[in-house]
What does this fold into?
Amino acid sequence: MMNPTSRSHGGVRVAGLLSAACAALLFAACGQQQAPAASEGAAATPQATDGADAAPAASGEVNLYTTREPGLIQPLLDAFTDSTGIEVNTVFLKDGLMERLGAEGERSPADVLMTVDTGNLLDVVDAGHTQAVDSDVLEEAIPAHLRGGEGHWFTLSLRDRVLYADKDLELDGFAYEDLADPQWKGRVCIRSGQHPYNTSLFAAMIAHNGAEATEEWLRGVKDNLARKAAGGDRDVARDILAGICDIGIANAYYVGRMKNAEEGSEQRQWGDAIQVIRPVFAGAEDGGTHVNISGAAIAANAPNRENAVALLEYLVSDEAQSMYARANYEYPVKAGVELDPVVASFGEMKIDPLPLTEVARYRRQASELVDKVGFDN
It folds into this structure.
């Protein structure tokens, strides 16, 4: 049966998903098959050997497995249901998505798999848990370098890795490479180098400039740190306000949250203390700002495939993309969508054109370099 991580919010129903999972368990019991051990709360649904025995599609619903907090996307799901009549059954999995899918196998009720971070999404694809989708709607809305070439994954929103700087600093522009410039010695704040937000940025640096240059750059950034690489992105703004550092690297959408916080609150003070600059890769011929993503894919054995595709297509519609921008302060993947005023104040973003699959190739090497230079020590 479903574990305690399954949640229902507003119009989202889990009853259909419970029924599907229970049906799979009953079938397995009758067939005297042994279910594989489940980890991280994975349902004990056995591996199936015949895809034809999978549960038939249930009309009017779609089953979403997501590592995103449901509250962040609930308004979009409610709007989708209002628009289509298709109910969304949501299972929130903070951890253990891969384990759960592996345990459920071909009988998994999952239709749509939604994750944060390019690497996490590509891990799901590489493990064989997705299927290809041919959709003109998705291809027209999402630039080629922000989706899988064979239709196995799609970006839904962007999280640009930007520079937080003291509001009184005069900076016309900034390159990621500048973080290692000695002029910033003792003036830089950043969270752990092993956090996926940073390993993704460091992997992009390897892709653009090579491993040797990136190692030297990381050593230079470490030398410039005002404090240990730790905390979260909003702590960078907090420490700029406190005078601990002058600049730092963090995600742009947190600034939307801080600058829209209640007047006089701590977070509002942090947000009001900084300006945002979108860095580029100086070493790249056509450099742009590094982005990470929230994205989704259709599950390999989706019982409600047509509804799953409809959900993804809705999530790249003007309506849904505008909701992403206003509710989460994330940058729309679809061009021409109106931004939240705070995000719009950062100026137009030129996205690094390097394919995300190319960046992801260097994730492990980036992590190894973080350890090699003692970045978090």
